[in-house]
Amino acid sequence: MRSGVLLVKVGRLVSRYIFQSLALLAALSFFVPVSLSARQIQVDGKPYVDLATVGKGFGMQPYWLKGYKTYRLRSQWTTIDVGKNGRTLYINRLPVALGFPTVESKGQLFIATADYKHALQPILTPQAFKDRPGCRRIVIDAGHGGKDSGARNDAYGLLEKDLTLDVARRLKVLLKRSGFEVVMTRDSDVYLPLAQRPKMANRAKADLFVSLHFNAAGSASASGFESYALTPQYQASSKYPRPTAKDAVRCKGNDYDPWNALITYHVERALVQGLGGPDRGMKRARWSVLKNLECPGVLTELGFVSHAETAKGLRSSAVRQKLAQSLYEGIVAYRKRLQRTQ
Ligand SMILES: [Zn+2]
Question: Model confidence over 286-328: pLDDT tens digits?
């Protein structure tokens, strides 16, 4: 009897404990939206949120790495590393350019709310945004053309305009084969003014605009991929240290900020996964082909023709096919992410 009573009591205690835990969990999940629960501070008049709360909102474990220089958010699938006072964070090691430097305060690391909204949230939980676009009609924009050769490497006989067109055609084949509609801004060696390119995408009612380019640098050692999303309003592009008055401009393309970030992340990731690094990451710029788009867009730099080894590789059609294949995989990964509801 006594043990029976005890068992009942223990049972009650356990169920009360479970009930309280559930209530606490429910309360926590209710308060997960960062705007409600995150600790906020103001830095230079801009709101910042603490990464520990942001991480919990994504179901990620937050902690400092040894040495207190890098803050990590971690889940089963994703690791995000953020340094102090830096403008880059790493999502599964892919460098993502931020608009504003992170800030440490009282042992906590804070990220600008704008960066949470424009980088972390669209990449990690795109389903949080309304009005998800389709992903059926893709406009491929082969950079340069005609009298505009773009970057060149005479030693290897490479012109950027030829490389972009070659990869664009390969990508077109891959996309069409799996049911995408494809529109090319150019399909021959013609000159096409920059303003014409987004106009063609808008006229075609494109779901996505992908602009292909190759880099050249004064330094022969520069190499790797980098992909650009349109810079959000009030934010400096990646190559500038801080915003100025002209960054208050809002472009048409900014209506698609979450999707610009998502496609850029997936294109960059697929390129590095397919062909290796160095991964120069996801960056921000107000390229004129991106500014006036009425759909999501990305401008990707598919390697440095000024880098001898890259240039040698680009002479091989197998490498150019691999570039197209990786771009294709990036677009498919983006579409898959758009279609996911959870
Ligand atoms: Zn170019």
Answer: 999 999 999 999 999 999 999 999 999 999 999 999 999 999 9
Identify whether the C-beta of residue 250 lies closer than 8 Å to the C-beta of residue 233: yes
Distance in Å, CA 148 to ligand 1 centroid: 9
Q: How far is the CA of 126 from the centre of ligand 1 (A)?
A: 29
Give the environment of ion ligand 1: residues with CB less than 5 A.
143, 150, 213
Q: Which two tokens stand for residue 116?
A: 């949470």
Beta bridge partners of 61: 74
Q: How far is the CA of 166 from the centre of ligand 1 (A)?
A: 14
pTM of the entire structure?
Answer: 0.88
Q: Name the CATH architecture for the domain at 137-339.
A: 3-Layer(aba) Sandwich (3.40)
Task: State in Å: Cα 44 to ligand 1 middle.
Answer: 36
| Confidence band for 342, pLDDT divided at 50, 70 and 90 | low
Separation of CA 159 and ligand 1 centre (Å): 10
For 34-124, the fitting CATH number among 3.40.630.30, 3.30.457.10, 1.10.540.10, 1.20.120.430 is: 3.30.457.10
Q: Is the dihedral of CA 116, 120, 123, 127 positive or negative?
A: negative
Question: Can you list the positions of beta strands (E) in 106-207?
Answer: 108-112, 137-142, 152-153, 158-159, 181-184
Residue 56 has pLDDT above 60, yes or no: yes
User: Is the per-residue pLDDT at 35 higher than 90?
Assistant: no
Query: Residue 237 burial by CB count (10 A; 0-12/13-18/19+): exposed, middle or buried?
Result: middle
Tell me 145's DSSP state.
Answer: B
